[in-house]
């Protein structure tokens, strides 16, 4: 009996069973029948045809379908086809593609909500049109029995509609009432209920005024606002998910001499992981075999590669440059230094979520006023008419309907939808709902250098000063290595005959030229005195030559800086790199205000210091060392090539390589903010005209319907103006 | 005025038919990729499949 129990408990703990990596990968492979690829460059009918044709021609692919609105393609394929096989196929067709983790893209929940809202809009529209038909007859003078019949019919259509379509408002109003707050939805629900019940009462007593049309129209316009709001939220959320899914990291695990590719989540501590030259460290670990150089730029901002050999501790996110390294995993997945950093950011982020939007501020002002007006109208007319409840309730319902924030509910969502659509076409993804408004308030921009203003691809300096022979020898040696510095030289220098080329991982390349040994590599290996900036060294005929490097400027960086300055925004540069490198770069791009050698905490402190001086800071950065500053800033932007920790920390992500979109984004955000304020003004103006009418009892159902639809339409048109204006 | 007994049900029926068509279109994912469908009409090869994303 105990035996059986032991067995049962053993089997009940699947983690205790040692599964070899090969089995784990087999289990994953068999499910991979459906995948999702992101196509950032997708545009136009030609793209649909080219992508789908290219994918269908690939063996193993069963079907492919491009979704142009989401810039994605979903592929159904045999289990043995993996996304990595399809990316080159699409690259050959001329389209950049990234793998997306289909599991993270399950948007069924938000999809269902959006569809539910659409359904309610459809029903409200149907009822509104039919009631309008009947109401027009009443407004144009139908009398007695005909009017009563039409009121009855309207009521029969309107009551179920209000009950069905008003649910989102009733639910949220109930929620805010229970928290003891007066949200926007409380006056909306009150107006819906009051208008419907007073109309039923009037209909039963053959009264002249029934507000069924107003109640349904209110539902319709508010649902549109709600739907737009939901859509931009869902878009932001899917953008965030897409970015999280963009990097589906894998590791090559050595399983008894065999190489198995596993997703990071499946890697366990003490597994042996192989990192090829050019690969990024997937986990934290200790080097147990091999020598190489590693680039810590993304984590620390330093542009000079460091040596790595057995015993060196490496962190996830660093890039292996020259030789293959075998690591023993010390921390993987959630525990790795990368993810711990991301968790820290999550804490800093919550402070940002306390930002009150324009809409919140408006509704905090507006909501109590609506109630106050309506109840004082009720009280006044009760007193004036000597207790005529029917008349007083009629007036207070009219006041509620007219003051109801119909246009207010549309004012913000319409602008946000228009602005984020425009930004998306420029390759700017808004991840956070309030980021647009915060971006509009910015008056100081802090840039990171490495990887943000620069491409991370080095450019050699002073090549012309080298003797002709040295240029050729350096070119020949450089061609033997995949190190980024060597690659930069290889593409710019001539070559000559150098024999017995050999790459010494972690040090450099050596060979024989005219029978003499020549070397290209690290200063200490060559025996040269190291320079202050990023450099490689050539040993030739007993002489050493230094070749310095500078960073390549990212396209659009200068345009972005100029554009931001033109809008009156101060520009600063903060980097973890050496003083010489940062100073030289700042001169090139024309930034006078720069800080070098900043540690991650110092970057964040600097941003906080500027904030304390009363400025609103926009931080633009890409590295792990920027995450603290990104989270501390008022609003933050990172390029899509940034480390996922940085992308998580920032509010806005640039999809393209070009930085000039930043200046446009600030411009559009400011324009959008202005439109929102204008929209509040417009709906306020309508109220100023219509409310006194309602208060004195002169508001007819016709006037209510007119005021409501006119203000909603003006507000939406004003929001759309944003789309047409050239920036 | 007897004509109303015919006209009102007819107008309601027509409206309901429109609502039904809208619900059907939504249920069959026809609003999922508006940009894509606008472009697909320009393609040469005949394509009758609706968007299959879910």
Automatic annotation (TrEMBL), chain A:
The keyword Amino-acid biosynthesis does not apply. It is found in: Cell membrane. GO terms for cellular component: plasma membrane. Its main location: membrane. It holds the Pfam family E1-E2_ATPase. Its EC number is 3.6.3.3. Residues 33-98 form the HMA domain. It is a multi-pass membrane protein. Keywords: ATP-binding, Cell membrane, Hydrolase, Ion transport, Magnesium, Membrane, Metal-binding, Nucleotide-binding, Phosphoprotein, Translocase, Transmembrane, Transmembrane helix, Transport. The chain crosses the membrane at residues 117-137, 149-170, 182-204, 210-228, 364-383, 395-416, 677-696. Signal peptide: none annotated. GO terms for biological process: copper ion homeostasis. GO terms for molecular function: ATP binding; ATP hydrolysis activity; copper ion binding; P-type divalent copper transporter activity. It comes from the Bacteria. The keyword Cell cycle does not apply. PANTHER family: ATP7, ISOFORM B, CATION-TRANSPORTING P-TYPE ATPASE-RELATED. Belongs to the cation transport ATPase (P-type) (TC 3.A.3) family. Type IB subfamily. This is Cadmium-translocating P-type ATPase. It comes from Stagnihabitans tardus. The gene is cadA.
TrEMBL record, chain B:
Keywords: Membrane, Transmembrane, Transmembrane helix. InterPro entries: Cyt_oxidase_maturation_cbb3. The chain crosses the membrane at residues 6-25. It comes from the Bacteria. This is Cbb3-type cytochrome oxidase assembly protein CcoS. The lineage of its organism: Bacteria, Pseudomonadati, Pseudomonadota, Alphaproteobacteria, Rhodobacterales.
């Amino acid at each position: 009996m105990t035996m059986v129990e032991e067995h049962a408990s053993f089997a009940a703990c699947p983690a205790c069973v040692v599964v070899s990596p090969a089995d784990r990968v087999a289990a994953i492979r068999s499910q991979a029948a459906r995948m999702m690829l992101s196509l950032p460059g997708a545009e136009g009918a030609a793209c649909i045809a080219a992508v789908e044709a290219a994918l269908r021609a690939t063996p193993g692919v069963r079907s492919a379908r491009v979704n142009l609105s989401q810039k994605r393609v979903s592929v159904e394929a045999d289990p043995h086809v993996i996304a990595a096989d399809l990316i080159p196929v699409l690259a050959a067709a001329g389209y950049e593609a990234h793998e997306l983790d289909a599991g993270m893209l399950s948007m069924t929940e938000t999809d269902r909500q959006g569809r539910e809202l659409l359904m309610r809009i459809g029903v409200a529209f149907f009822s509104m049109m039919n009631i309008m038909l009947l109401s027009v007859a009443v407004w144009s003078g139908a009398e007695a029995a005909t009017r009563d019949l039409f009121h009855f019919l309207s009521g029969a259509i309107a009551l179920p509609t209000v009950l069905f379509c008003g649910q989102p408002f009733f639910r949220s109003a109930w929620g805010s009432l229970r928290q003891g707050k007066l949200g926007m939805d409380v006056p909306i629900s009150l107006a819906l209920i009051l208008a419907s019940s007073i109309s039923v009462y009037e209909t039963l007593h053959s009264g002249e005024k029934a507000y069924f049309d107003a109640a349904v129209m209110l539902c319709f316009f508010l649902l549109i606002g709600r739907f737009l709001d939901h859509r931009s939220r869902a878009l932001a959320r899917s953008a965030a998910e897409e970015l999280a899914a963009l990097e589906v990291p894998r590791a090559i695990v050595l399983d008894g001499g065999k190489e198995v590719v596993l997703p990071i989540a499946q890697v366990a501590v003490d597994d042996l992981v192989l990192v090829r030259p050019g690969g990024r460290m997937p986990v934290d670990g200790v080097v147990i075999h091999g020598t190489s150089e590693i680039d810590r730029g993304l984590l620390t901002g330093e542009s000079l590669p460091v040596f790595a050999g057995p015993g060196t501790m490496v962190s996830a996110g660093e890039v292996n440059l020259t030789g293959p390294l075998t690591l023993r995993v010390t921390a993987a997945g959630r525990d790795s230094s990368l993810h711990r950093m991301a968790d820290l950011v999550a804490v800093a982020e919550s402070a940002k979520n306390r930002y009150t939007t324009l809409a919140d501020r408006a509704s905090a002002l507006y909501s109590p006023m609506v109630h106050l007006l309506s109840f004082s109208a009720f009280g006044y007319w009760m007193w004036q008419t000597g207790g005529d409840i029917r008349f007083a309730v009629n007036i207070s319902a009219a006041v509620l309907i007219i003051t109801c924030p119909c246009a207010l509910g549309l004012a913000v969502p319409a602008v946000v939808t228009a602005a984020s659509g425009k930004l998306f076409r420029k390759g700017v993804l808004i991840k956070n709902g309030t980021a647009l408004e915060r971006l509009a308030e910015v008056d100081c921009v802090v840039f990171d250098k490495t990887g943000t203003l620069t491409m991370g691809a080095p450019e050699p300096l002073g090549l012309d000063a080298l003797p002709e022979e040295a240029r050729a020898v350096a070119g020949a040696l450089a061609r033997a290595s995949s190190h980024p510095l060597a690659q930069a030289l290889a593409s710019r220098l001539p070559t000559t005959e150098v024999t017995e080329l050999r790459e010494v991982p972690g040090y450099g390349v050596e060979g024989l030229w005219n029978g003499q040994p020549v070397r290209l590599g690290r200063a200490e290996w060559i025996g040269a005195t190291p320079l202050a900036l990023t450099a490689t060294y050539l040993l030739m005929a007993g002489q050493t030559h230094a070749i310095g490097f500078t960073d390549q400027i990212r396209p659009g960086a200068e345009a972005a800086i100029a554009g931001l300055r033109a809008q009156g925004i101060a520009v600063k540069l903060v980097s973890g790199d050496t003083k010489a490198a940062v100073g030289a770069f700042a001169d090139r791009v024309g930034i006078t205000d720069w800080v070098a050698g900043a540690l991650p905490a110092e970057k964040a402190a600097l941003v906080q210091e500027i904030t304390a001086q009363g400025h609103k800071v926009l931080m633009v950065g890409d590295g792990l060392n920027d995450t603290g500053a990104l989270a501390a800033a008022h609003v933050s932007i990172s390029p899509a090539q940034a480390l996922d920790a940085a992308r998580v920390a920032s509010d806005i992500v640039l999809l393209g390589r070009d930085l000039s979109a930043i200046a446009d984004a600030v411009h559009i955000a400011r324009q959008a903010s202005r439109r929102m304020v204008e929209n509040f003004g417009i709906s306020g103006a309508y109220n100023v005209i219509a409310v006194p009418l309602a208060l004195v009892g002169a508001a007819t159902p016709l006037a209510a319907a007119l005021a409501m639809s006119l203000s909603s339409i003006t507000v939406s048109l004003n929001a759309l103006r944003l789309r047409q204006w050239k920036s | 005025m007897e004509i109303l007994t015919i006209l009102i049900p007819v107008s309601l029926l027509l409206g309901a038919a429109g609502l039904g068509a809208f619900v059907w279109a939504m249920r069959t994912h026809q609003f999922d990729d508006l940009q894509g469908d606008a472009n697909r009409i320009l393609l040469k090869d005949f394509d009758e499949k609706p968007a299959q994303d879910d």
